[in-house]
Amino acid sequence: MDLLIKGGTLVTAQSTFKADIAVVNGKISAIGKNLKADKNTEVIDAKGKLVLPGAIDGHTHLAMPFGGTISTDDYYAGTRSAACGGTTTVFDFILQAKGEPMQDAIKRRDALAAPDAAVDYSFHIGVTDVSTDELLDSMEEAVQAGIPSFKVFMVYDFGVDDGSFYRVLQKAAGIGALVGVHAENREVNNVLIKQFLAEGKTEAWWHYVSKKEDVEGEADVRAINLAKMAGTSLYIVHLANKQGVEAVKEARDQGYPIFAETCPQYLYFTSEVYKRERARDFVCSPPMKGKASQEALWEAIKSGDIATVATDHCPFTRAEKDWGIVTKDGKPGNFTTIPNGCAGIETMYPYMLSEANKGRITFNKVVELCATNPAKLFGLDHQKGALQVGLDADIVLYDKKKEFTITNSAMHGDTDHTIWEGVSLKGYPVATYSRGRLVYKEGEFLGKRGEGKLIKCKPIKLTTPEL
Ligand code: URP
Ligand code: ZN
Ligand code: ZN
């Protein structure tokens, strides 16, 4: 036995109990009371600590070309930061280039990720071009290569139209793939942008208004209808509005395999942040919404209608956010010239666990949202997402008594600010193991560049709302 974590309180999606965990060759080899170490075993005293599965962040954008620049955290900085927040697997988005077969897109991005990743990773493919049958058919090769999840964007200039979205959904149904969607109504968004800019409304607040509640909600409803028409499952990423929550709930109540993800930023902040002095730092898509949407998201977490919490980690520097004032070409900026996205990879699990520690939801629920459900949804539950014999020893020790105030200087990414600055958490992860290797301990990153592995996922077949 290589490692024995003794005397902790294990938290799974289903239950909480005291037990020891033994690790051999990076896998959990036994769970039970009074497990005995042998002479080569490293023994960790976890008395008084919660022992949790490492989180799986189902939505990151590392080193992503976007908004006229590249997101700040590369695969090393991003996964280093993830490890220090208790996240042991990240699903990063590959953006397919025009005319690029899916398997080429995987190879292109893995060449960047493999030498750098400090924790395990996999990919979703952001589909931008299915203009030929060959490109559409190449989705199947991605599934065979262990990348069975795709995302379409209903917004942005690289987004697809409803016809292409529908073709991707049809294709996915037959090949064991899951389609995720960034749902916002591009046409309405573009009309509002034009009108606001013509009226001299340039501040970050107008980013929110141009993508307000119903701009997202309409697209959620349309995306669900397209999935129903194609007879397949759907995963709505970064859900942030009440109308969308209601549409997801209704479809699930009718028995459709519709799943939703939300992010901590929508659970903690509201659109009021766009009135702050540095409102531009909070510009992301979809934007934070009003209180009613936030309450609906928390209710949907409690009812099980939101399946996962992920980060949408896509950080940019303050200087890049300042392009909302003066663009990089020295022209007057506005809310459309701010790169969209915020950092969150290191704060997701700590924030969600803190909410559990404060009594809003159970720790089991957090494990379900941040580890077990992402593993099930993305075809990874044969290897990750739970404290279970035979699975990877991705394990987090959590101190419920540790008080922690988020500051950017305490984070481990390459970003120069965090929208979470000054937020107080109750409890914090104190150690992270990635396949049995200690990669984080009490504020310090102990992992290594390149030790993370590409995880191949199984084909995904979701036919009911249950996971
Ligand atoms: O603002 C965001 N979310 N940036 C990343 C790209 C996306 O839409 O997920
Ligand atoms: Zn998105
Ligand atoms: Zn995203």
Automatic annotation (TrEMBL):
Keyword Hydrolase listed: yes
Alphabetically ordered keywords of this record: Hydrolase, Metal-binding
One Gene Ontology term, aspect cellular component: cytoplasm
CDD domains with a match to the protein in the record: D-HYD
PTM-bearing positions, type N6-carboxylysine: K151
UniProt keyword annotation of Metal-binding present: yes
Cofactor(s), names only, from the UniProt record: Zn(2+)
Modification(s) after translation: Carbamylation allows a single lysine to coordinate two divalent metal cations.
Listed Pfam families: Amidohydro_1
Entry's EC annotation: 3.5.2.2
Origin superkingdom: Bacteria
GO molecular-function terms, A-Z: dihydropyrimidinase activity; metal ion binding
InterPro entries (alphabetical): Amidohydro-rel, Hydantoinase/dihydroPyrase, Metal-dep_hydrolase_composite, Metal_Hydrolase, Metallo-dep_Hydrolases_sf
Domain Amidohydrolase-related: 50-422
Family listed: Belongs to the metallo-dependent hydrolases superfamily. Hydantoinase/dihydropyrimidinase family.
Protein name as it appears in the record: Dihydropyrimidinase
